[in-house]
Amino acid sequence: INIILQKDNNSYRSFYNALLHEGYRDLAALLQDGIPAISSGNRSSSMDGMTSYVKTILCEGGVPQRPVVFVTRPKLVDAIKQKLCCLGNDPGWVTVYGMAGCGKTVLTAEALRDHQLLEDYFPGGVHWISVGKQDKAGLLIKLQNLCSRLEHDSALSQRPPLNIDEAKDRLRLLMLRKYPR
């Protein structure tokens, strides 16, 4: 409890939610009176600090929602944000890696919950794809879906790619012509 109290209010709230969801309702009830109030003194219009613009962009792009039990890790989120901002000057990739279950998805999604980052560096939105371990058929479906999403408002819209090589070629052209950043 002392460690949680040294962190921000969201940590206490997340700990409380974890107790509730993991079957420790009696312990959670003891902590219920101490749950900090949520302040809304920033420019956002929601309880979790996201503007409606951010919610819309992330929802349209398929970015995972924040988990019920969430602990902030601002240094790691800021590191990912800085790398994403570098893509504005030099197009490329940001790779987040680590053991399964260590929080790569949560951290990366959290970095995208920044209004200014999305507005300045991702004006066309984001497209989130969870690939994981896929057989060739599963990978082809993921690539076809991405092609469809990227071509949705384009005159380039065509039939779905029939194989992985065709999908890779189409995505390469889309990235070069339509989404160079």
Automatic annotation (TrEMBL):
<protein>
    <submittedName>
        <fullName>APAF factor</fullName>
    </submittedName>
</protein>
<dbReference type="GO" id="GO:0043531">
    <property type="term" value="F:ADP binding"/>
</dbReference>
<dbReference type="InterPro" id="IPR002182">
    <property type="entry name" value="NB-ARC"/>
</dbReference>
<dbReference type="Pfam" id="PF00931">
    <property type="entry name" value="NB-ARC"/>
</dbReference>
<dbReference type="GO" id="GO:0005829">
    <property type="term" value="C:cytosol"/>
</dbReference>
<dbReference type="InterPro" id="IPR027417">
    <property type="entry name" value="P-loop_NTPase"/>
</dbReference>
<dbReference type="GO" id="GO:0006915">
    <property type="term" value="P:apoptotic process"/>
</dbReference>
<feature type="domain" description="NB-ARC">
    <location>
        <begin position="75"/>
        <end position="178"/>
    </location>
</feature>
